[in-house]
Amino acid sequence: PLGEAAVTGGGNLKARYVIHAAGMELGSSVSARSCEMATVNSLRRAEEKKLRSIAFPAIGTGVGGLGLAECARVMLSAVRNHQPQSLERVVFILFDEAALRSFEQTWKQMSG
Description:
Strand order of the largest sheet: 1-2
Shape: globular
Helix content: 40-55%
Oligomer: single chain
């Protein structure tokens, strides 16, 4: 379902698991709410597996059409509000310098 996340094995990747988050329905776009729920549910799945780290792309900013600044605000808020149990590290794997700057600027604004 939209906003949910499911865990599979990592296959040939150097990761034990891959968490697949549903940010959009086929043929539609990604909303701030679906991005938020996909992030929250991915964090939940990571905790269920007792993972110590998780890496995220900027969910929905490609074909999903979600603006980079909105994505950064939503995802960073979800991570900030998360109450970690096993997770020690959250990493964002971003496409380019512009995405990095957007996430860094958003984090600075949120951190006061």
